[in-house]
Each structure stands twice: as structure tokens, then as C-alpha cells.
């Protein structure tokens, strides 16, 4: 049980993002509306993925 406690905020945010993804109707909607949430989940810069293309 002690292994889960430090990860609890991440798991809660992951579940929230997952629920939002399942509520979308297409991939474009995920990319446009959820990219900031996904990046925040992994502490990533939203513009960083554009630089790697």
C-alpha cells in the first residue's frame, strides 16, 4: 500500500485524462483539447513535441 501513496496524485490525474479521452469523438479533438492535460500529466512542455517532428 505504501507504494501507491506517492503515486496517488499521478494516478488520479491519469484517470481524469483517460476519462476525457474516452469522452472525445475523434483524435483531432484529443490533440486540440487534451494536449495540455496530457503534457501536464508527464511534466512535458506542450511545444516540445512540435520541435521533435
TL;DR?
The chain is mainly α. Helices cover 66% and strands 0% of the residues. The protein has one domain (5-51).
Secondary structure layout:
Blueprint (H helix, E strand, L loop, with lengths): L7 H16 L3 H15 L6 H4 L2
Helix pairs in contact: 1-2
Could you explain how this protein is built, in words?
The radius of gyration is 13 Å and the shape is flat. Helix content is 66%, strand content 0%. α1 (8-23) packs antiparallel against α2 (27-41). It has one domain (5-51). It is mainly α and 53 residues long.
Unreliable spans = none
Apparent shape: flat
> What quaternary form is this?
single chain
How many individual domains? 1
Name the helicity range.
55-70%
The Cα radius of gyration reads 13 Å
Order of helices and strands: HHH
What are the main properties of this structure?
53 residues; mainly alpha
